[in-house]
């Protein structure tokens, strides 16, 4: 969802034969294997034999590319060794030096590296100059910095056909990944698509388009019958009996709100909302982006029942807004992406509060008591540092039922769960490291003695080690991190698309002849297309003037206005607001048409403003003036 939440699984720069060090790959059906490694890393050295077997098995189908990732702190002298390989490469001997460095056992002293260079027949005077030159150091540093940008934190790290490989490192597992059987191809294709920043918005757009198609073709009776079909436990209108569409709204959106809540917590603790001035700007702009469109809408619809739809043009759709920014590519500076993501997070908070305060159903005091008790239980679990996931899931399910029974939108259970999940991993990792080290040491000893034991005798130690490693790994991530990793794909590719499919299916042939209908549509469109950017920009001016907020350094005025316009994309939550504001189906359909038209216009306007010309950093604009 938010930009800072993204886990880098895709290689940021493709292999460049003129720059990168590569072997093989002459075949037409080439497989790309990029490895970030350290010559002094013992694990890289062990895996070199597996890489050699892979090259033998795949031949010219495999192009193996080596990129530098020296860890000087963990392996003193690593930077010199990598510089030596690069200096040898300047004389056409990179792979000879590469092999010599890995073939020699540790420790690897500088004198030994120089001996390799002499044995290769290198010009030693030039080698000595190059190994300490700024150009060689910069070349190694470039790989290191680029690796970190790719999400590399340790060595070795693998990328297969541009996608990070986090599977097992044994020969057969890697060979299966590289040989591309049908299952592996489908899995890799899905991961590549999910790694695209705009993929979630693309899936959401497809779901909305399918819903519009179904609602405006002969399929409409079946579509509406499906959405209105009762499902659940109890009698219609009571218990847990709701329509399929209501389950998509209250049930699936709980997953979305859980992810939003987790993103909010992360941004406030370690993300873009930790600095006061950096957090104040998107927060104030989000408030302005709610007040201005609501005011425009109410100016056109001052009286009931139309006035109830004031909230429809106030919400920003995160997935679509960030998806458009991703499609615009390098034209969009990083600061603008972070600003829009942070604004969308605060906007979601305001949307949640709007749902809770302005659109409650008839309250049931008994269920409210259960709601409070469940919320307190989640807080107690947090304070007791309960790290298992199932207690939180059980209590959150009870909370969801209680909110539904109390007459409050049950999807808000996701926000409460996100607010109470522990965000810290185990207080001390030392015992976990000892547990993992003990298990690995036992496996290593077992491996060395495997010739003397049967497979049956070995099985207990493998099972014991597996349990210990799994337990240690589970505690290295906080429950909040585990939930976010598990929920993110379900939210982006299941919950939101299904909700969009249920909420966007409105008939485009509606009666807009009355002035009331025209005012509703006009209020929603004007609120999204003009109200959102006007409110955001006025709030930004006030924040900067009062010195309580600051615009990111790499964002120009043109870029800021374009980003503010993109915040007028209000599909998912705006559609939910329409359903809540207008229980009558006709009025809701009219408002939803306004949302669809306004969102398309806002996306087109924002993209046009940003792409008029390449954006320059604010500092460059100041220097030019």
Structural write-up:
With 625 residues, the protein is mostly helical. It has three domains: 3-195, Glutaredoxin (3-Layer(aba) Sandwich), CATH 3.40.30; 201-211 and 243-359 and 493-624, Na+/H+ antiporter like domain (Na+/H+ antiporter like fold, Up-down Bundle), CATH 1.20.1530; 430-476. It contains 25 helices and seven strands. The chain has a five-stranded mixed beta sheet with strand order 1-3-2-4-5. Strands 6-7 form a two-stranded antiparallel ribbon. The protein is globular.
Write the layout of secondary structure elements.
Elements: E1 21-24, E2 31-37, H1 42-58, E3 62-68, H2 78-89, H3 94-103, H4 110-119, H5 124-131, H6 134-149, E4 157-160, E5 163-165, H7 171-179, H8 182-195, H9 199-215, H10 220-227, E6 230-231, E7 242-243, H11 244-269, H12 276-300, H13 318-328, H14 334-358, H15 365-383, H16 390-406, H17 413-420, H18 430-448, H19 455-476, H20 479-503, H21 515-545, H22 557-566, H23 572-581, H24 585-611, H25 618-624
Parallel strand pairs: 2-3
Antiparallel strand pairs: 1-3, 2-4, 4-5, 6-7
Helix pairs in contact: 1-7, 2-3, 2-4, 2-5, 2-6, 9-10, 9-13, 9-20, 11-14, 11-17, 11-20, 12-14, 12-21, 13-14, 13-24, 15-16, 16-17, 18-19, 20-23, 21-22, 21-24, 22-24, 23-24
């Amino acid at each position: 969802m938010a930009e800072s939440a993204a886990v880098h699984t895709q290689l940021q720069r493709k292999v460049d034969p003129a720059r990168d060090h590569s072997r093989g790959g002459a075949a037409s059906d080439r497989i790309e294997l990029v490895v970030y490694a350290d010559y002094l890393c013992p694990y890289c050295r062990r895996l070199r034999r597996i890489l050699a077997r892979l090259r033998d098995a795949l031949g010219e189908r495999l192009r193996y590319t080596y990129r530098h990732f020296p860890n000087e702190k963990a392996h003193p002298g690593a930077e010199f060794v990598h510089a030596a390989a690069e200096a040898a490469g300047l004389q056409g001997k990179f792979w000879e030096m590469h092999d010599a460095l890995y073939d020699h056992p540790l420790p690897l002293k500088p004198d030994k590296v120089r001996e390799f260079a002499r044995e290769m027949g290198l010009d030693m005077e030039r080698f000595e100059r190059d190994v300490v030159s700024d150009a060689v150091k910069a070349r190694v540093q470039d790989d290191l910095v680029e690796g970190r940008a790719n999400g590399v934190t340790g060595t070795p790290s693998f990328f297969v056909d541009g996608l990070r490989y986090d599977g097992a490192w044994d020969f057969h597992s890697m060979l299966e990944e590289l040989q591309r059987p049908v299952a592996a191809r489908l899995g890799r294709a899905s991961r590549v698509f999910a790694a695209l920043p705009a993929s979630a918005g693309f899936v959401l757009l497809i779901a909305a388009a399918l819903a519009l198609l179904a609602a405006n073709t002969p399929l409409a009776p079946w579509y509406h019958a499906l959405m209105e079909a009762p499902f659940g436990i109890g009698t219609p209108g009571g218990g847990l009996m709701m329509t399929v569409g209501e389950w998509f709204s209250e049930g699936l959106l709980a997953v979305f709100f859980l992810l939003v809540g987790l993103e909010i917590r992360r941004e406030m603790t370690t993300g873009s909302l930790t600095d006061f001035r950096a957090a104040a700007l998107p927060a104030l702009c989000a408030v302005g982006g709610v007040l201005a469109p609501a005011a425009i809408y109410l100016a056109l619809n001052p009286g009931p029942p139309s006035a109830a739809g004031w909230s429809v043009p106030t919400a920003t759709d995160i997935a679509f807004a960030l998806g458009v920014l991703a499609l615009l590519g390098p034209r969009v500076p990083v600061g603008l992406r972070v600003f829009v993501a942070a604004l969308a997070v605060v906007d979601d908070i305001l949307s949640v509060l709007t749902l809770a305060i302005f659109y409650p159903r008839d309250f049931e005091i008994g269920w409210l008591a259960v709601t409070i008790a469940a919320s307190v239980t989640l807080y107690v679990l947090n304070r007791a540092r309960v790290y298992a996931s199932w207690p939180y899931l059980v209590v959150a399910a009870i909370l969801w039922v209680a909110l539904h029974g109390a007459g409050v939108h049950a999807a808000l259970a996701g926000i409460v769960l996100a607010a109470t999940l522990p965000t810290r991993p185990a207080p001390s990792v030392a015992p976990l490291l000892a547990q993992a080290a003990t298990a690995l040491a036992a496996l290593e000893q077992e491996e060395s003695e495997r010739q003397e034991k049967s497979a049956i005798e070995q099985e207990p130690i493998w099972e014991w080690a597996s349990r210990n490693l799994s337990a240690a790994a589970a505690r290295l991530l906080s429950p909040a991190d585990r939930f976010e990793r598990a929920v993110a794909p379900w939210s982006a590719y299941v919950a939101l698309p299904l909700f969009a499919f249920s909420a966007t299916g409105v008939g485009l042939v509606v009666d807009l002849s009355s002035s009331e209908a025209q005012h509703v549509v006009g209020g929603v469109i004007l609120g999204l297309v003009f109200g959102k950017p006007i409110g955001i920009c006025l709030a930004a001016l006030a924040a900067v003037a009062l010195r309580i907020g600051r615009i990111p350094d790499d964002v120009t005025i043109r870029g800021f206005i374009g980003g503010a316009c993109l915040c007028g994309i209000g599909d998912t939550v705006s559609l939910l607001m329409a359903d809540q504001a207008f229980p009558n189906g006709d009025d809701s359909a009219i408002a939803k048409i306004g949302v669809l038209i306004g969102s398309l216009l806002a996306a087109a306007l924002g993209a046009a403003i940003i792409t008029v010309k390449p954006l320059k950093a604010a500092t460059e604009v100041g220097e030019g003036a």
